[in-house]
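U., I forgot to send this yesterday:
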Amino acid sequence: MTSMSPQSPSSGLSRIRVGSAPDSWGVWFPDDPRQVPWQRFLDEVAESGYEWIELGPYGYLPTDPAVLTEETSRRGLKVSAGTVFTGLHHGEAVWEKTWAHVADNASLAQAMGASHLVVIPSFWRDDKTGEVLEPDTLTPAQWRNLNTLTERLGRRVREEYGLQIVVHPHADTHIDSEENVVRFLDGTDSGVVSLCLDTGHYAYCGGDSVKLIETYGERIGYLHLKQVDPEILADVRATGTPFGPAVARGVMCEPPAGVPALEPVLEAAQGLGVELFAIVEQDMYPCEPDAPLPIAQRTRAFLRSCGA
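Result:
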């Protein structure tokens, strides 16, 4: 794993490691004509002043570790995590297919010196089309599958790749609201399952990030920094708009214009007394290719003003 050297003593958030991700450049898929080329993402994320990145959807960045190491190193970038999507509530029937997908991502993340693997539950409605794929609530048996297989995943990823899984509550998935996040945390082993708290998704689903950090601090293993536009969110909720179209409308906005306020979130995270990655993820799919860079530069400057 990559060691994380302390920041300067002058920083108020000395335990927070700030980075960004392909998501903040409008990247949701391994290959899509509406997305910027991966070389441009790497150039611009480095130009924005970030040191840490995530891999994004597997196959967007080069999957050959030698190639990716050369490309990131010459730009002064390091990898904090990979990301996988899982549907573990479906039970044993999906385990082998899920593991094959996880293994590819975990292998690349390990080779790049990452320490985490972000695990996102599968969507109950399609994030691009809004098509309803399955019920939006789980049965008791599905909850048992989700909890048991997530624990198995956490143990195997740690044993085989030395990575910590961090499960990402996400809009239009079954781990979304405070009720479902708490149910998931209470049903899983804290020794193998931690949380990637995405401040924007949690607010989108009605949750309070500071409260979650203060209540379940020992389970917070990673942060995604994001804000939602409260006016657009209110309309999205009123109309039942799916997540993909909501993002296209700008529901995830540039900080500090939205909610939650990030300063108290970062302060609460600093207070946990552990080192945490805080990766900026402003969902912007699709977006104009020239849009992400100035937003990323302003966001990095804003986070510096917060002490991060």
